[in-house]
# Entry
Amino acid sequence: MKKEIGNSLSEITFASQNLRTNTRRNIFYSAGLTLLLLLLAVGGILFVWKWHDGTKIAEMRIEKMLESERADIQKKAVEDYKASKQFRADASELVAKNIEKIDIGFYLYRNMQSEDLKKWKELNQFYKTYLKDSYEQYKAQK
# Structure
């Protein structure tokens, strides 16, 4: 019986040592895993925060790029319009409907080509009378 009690005590001692060792190991694992999870959570939050900022930056860059593209398209459209026959038709209509306005006469006087005046006698007369008078009135107003 002493032998059985001795065996039981040695088993209890061995089991208690294993229990202490396993408890310590489990505490270290738990602490390590808790620290790892905490670091992953902080890293995840920082990632999401930076990703959100990154998407804002990307959106701002896209908006700038679109504004630049829009400006280029508008510039090209204006250039195409100025090169078209429709622009000349619209400009001629504007001048014809507003010929009595002093500023139209001023710009016509200032931009008239001397070769055209030499070629067309009636145009030269119009230039020297009406347009010159409009030019002088416009200058006097300014």
